[in-house]
Amino acid sequence: MAPRPKKPRHCCRTLIELGVQIFKPAGTPLVELEKIHILPDELESMRLCDSLGLTQQQAGERMGISRGTVQRLVNSGRKILIETLLEGQALVLDAEELADVEDLPVIEDSEVNEVA
Q1: How many CB atoms lie within 10 A of CB 98?
Q2: pTM of this prediction?
Q3: What are phi and psi of 54, to 5 degrees?
Q4: Would you list the domain boundaries of the chain?
């Protein structure tokens, strides 16, 4: 039996403009570092929940996915960030895969409702 198809996730267009971004410790050549990849949807879920202060339910509605999926994305994204910071690894964001996706919603910070 084939696995269930992945539900499309809506990330903001700003990620597409980033293309490939690599963040690494200063003073260490990239060739000497282990590269850890973070998915664009992990970064988007952390942006919505941690930076903009949305609940996981609100973030899920914005991204077109369930609250539980947002929770898993936030947890895995945070784990990746902590690993790369504490272990001195390079963090790779490859948003070019999103460039082929049409009709991505533009999520502006001004559209976010105040969370009480």
Answers
A1: 21
A2: 0.70
A3: -75, 155
A4: 13-101
